[in-house]
Design goal:
The chain has two helices and no strands. The chain is mainly α and about 70 residues long. The longest helix is centred in the first third of the chain and has 28 residues. It starts with 8 loop residues before the first helix and ends in a 6-residue tail after the last helix.
């Protein structure tokens, strides 16, 4: 993205919602499997999906930290 072009609101939505929805789906899947089968290793994947979601939120905030309306 060029410095002289401002991102449109749809760019914010795509940059935020797609990783968030994907992360939430991973948390839902691995969380439900971890609660049903606690000794099958789903806990590691659940922790990884939580970290993924938090990292994507941090990336979004870092990427648009200097945005001025």
């Amino acid at each position: 993205m060029n410095k002289d072009k401002k991102p449109m609101p749809k760019h914010f939505l795509l940059a935020f919602l797609i990783p968030m929805l994907f992360g939430k789906l991973m948390i839902l899947y691995f969380g439900s499997n971890y609660s049903a089968y606690p000794d099958q290793g789903y806990g590691k994947w659940l922790a990884g999906s939580i970290c993924f979601t938090l990292l994507m939120i941090a990336r979004f905030l870092w990427k648009y930290r200097n945005y001025e309306d």
